[in-house]
């Protein structure tokens, strides 16, 4: 299931525009911004076959968000941790050289879109950070 080069280029342009807007308008810890990076990085890795770009996007998002975690309330922190966990898992998977072909063999696949808000469970900030 591949798209034409034109379709892929349009997808890339849309992701890049959305990425630029979220970097200007949203905090680095905002779930919408992090969710976009999660999906954009998977697009870069799986569709564009550009793992170094996927890793750079992911690492930048994690690092920028980490610097702002002290400013969050508990619910914001839970949402942040949930998405960043997926970003880190992808970064670990991609950095290990597993890539998509090895990931398919092992059953490990990159995380893409998913639930970006946590309303359940009551965990404290300190236990979520470990």
What's the short version?
The chain is mostly helical and 130 residues long. It has helices spanning 5-25, 31-47, 51-66, 74-95, 99-106, 125-129. 68% of the residues lie in helices and 0% in strands.
Corresponding CATH superfamily: 14-3-3 domain
- Beta-strand percent range: under 5%
Poorly predicted tracts of residues: 99-108, 114-130
**Helix proportion range:** 55-70%
The number of domains: 1
Assign the CATH class.
Answer: Mainly Alpha
Radius of gyration: 15 Å
End-to-end separation in angstroms reads: 39 Å
Q: Helices and strands, in N-to-C order?
A: HHHHHH
Can you give the mean pLDDT?
A: 80
Report on the architecture of this protein:
This protein is an all-alpha fold. It has a single domain (5-102), classed as Delta-Endotoxin, domain 1 (Up-down Bundle), CATH 1.20.190. It has six helices and no strands. The chain has helices at 5-25, 31-47, 51-66, 74-95, 99-106, 125-129. Helix 2 (31-47) runs antiparallel to helix 3 and helix 3 runs antiparallel to helix 4 (74-95). The longest helix has 22 residues, at 74-95. The protein is globular, with a radius of gyration of 15 Å. The chain starts with a helix and ends with a helix. Mean pLDDT is 80; it is low at 99-108 and 114-130.
């Amino acid at each position: 299931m591949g798209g034409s080069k034109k379709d892929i280029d349009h997808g890339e342009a849309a992701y890049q525009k959305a990425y630029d807007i979220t970097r200007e308008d949203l905090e680095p810890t905002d779930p919408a911004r992090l969710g976009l990076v999660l999906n954009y990085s998977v697009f870069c890795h799986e569709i564009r076959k550009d793992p170094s770009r996927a890793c750079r996007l992911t690492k930048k998002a994690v690092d920028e968000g980490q610097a702002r975690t002290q400013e969050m309330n508990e619910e914001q922190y839970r949402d942040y941790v949930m998405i960043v966990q997926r970003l880190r898992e992808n970064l670990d998977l991609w950095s290990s050289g597993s890539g998509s072909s090895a990931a398919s063999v092992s059953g490990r696949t990159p995380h893409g879109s998913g639930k970006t808000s946590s309303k359940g469970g009551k965990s404290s900030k300190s236990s979520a950070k470990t």
